[in-house]
Amino acid sequence: MNGWYDFFYYFLIGVTILLSIHGLWFTAILPGIDQWNRRFFRSFFILLIINACFTLIYIAMYYFAPVTAIRFICVLTSLLIVLPLPMLTVLLLHCCKENVRESRLVKTVLALFIVYFIVTTIGLFTDAFIYFTPDKLDHRGSLYPLMLLPVNGIILINLVGTIRRRKLFSRKVYLSFLFTLFPMAFAMLMQMFVNVFLLLDICYTIFALSMYSIILSDQIEQDMRHQREIANQQLENINQQLEIANQRASIMMLQMRPHFIYNTLTSIYCLCKRDPERAPQVVMDFTTYLRKNFAALESNSPIPFTSELDHTRAYLAVELAQHSKSLLVEYDTSHTFFRIPPLTLQPIVENAVKHGMNPYAGPLHVKIRTYHADSDSVIIVEDNGLGFEMTEDSKPYMTLTNIRQRLELMCEGKMEITTRDEGGTKVTITIPDNNKILSEDYSPEA
Fold it and tell me: 398: number of CA atoms within 13 Å, CB side?
């Protein structure tokens, strides 16, 4: 039985040393620990290592040292073992952001520690507290419980102080303090009446583990807080970029070409005389185009593709009314169950018509296709026109850059512009399936 007792006793000492070394290591390398905490925990874990080493020295001296030396090491070890308790009081107040130097709690704890120091030192010269037999075994003296009263007072004060300040701690730190103090209060109270040295060693191992957990929890909380700050900053930047992009889109929408409006109204006027049956439809198409334009002013989120396609159809219908012989439009849009930012397809088609039409090169052929590939919805707009200049100062460049930015911010989409081998321009938009609309949930007004 003694063999198992000794093995477990040495095992606890080893665990305490290992935890303290790990605590020192993390205290040194973790970047989120402030200077005060770094100094405190460094001192604390060094003290725990010294305590463990002195305990081993105290055990080893049974084999070769005289009783006087053993008594001296016993007293010194008793003082070192209690010293972390006042340090715990300092940490308690620091976590609550209280002034340590002016705290009555610290002054009371220091007074009790001084009393314990005096009583323990007296133990060097009297057998009233601890005495040794000729075979070098230590025994409790008649006044031994009196020596532990200041220690129990320190633990009780720390425990009461922790509970009274519970609202000032994080949950993890509060539980770490309680996890340390409750077992130690119980063990030290029992030690006044019976020997429970093994239980006390377990409590000090728990003590080291609790301090170790405080370091880690504090670092984790700081890292999480830092990550949240970064995420909030990124979100704020994205929102700012999206707001700027939406403002640009609104400006682009409000700056409709005056000659387009004038030409459309003129065409409608002429149709009223030349083809009165067709004129109402052109009026409806032009009305739809205007309504979709201004409706997009109120939309800051992706809309169903069908809504944007209706906008584009209305625009092209108006253009066809004016350029029926020089413009051909082809639709292949069977895949429509996805969302895109407003004013995505229509401005691309408008750029194709405006910059691709050439009265000397035959009709402009514009083709709009959609399909589903892998996990993306794909839109392709291609024409056989002249293309358009894409310098940074050109209006097409600014329009398409704004569309690309809004695609990325609003639905993680991409846009690619290439030149067709047979002439003209090809614009490819790819939108991930997280913007997909289920057919059973689809509503044109969504």
Answer: 9
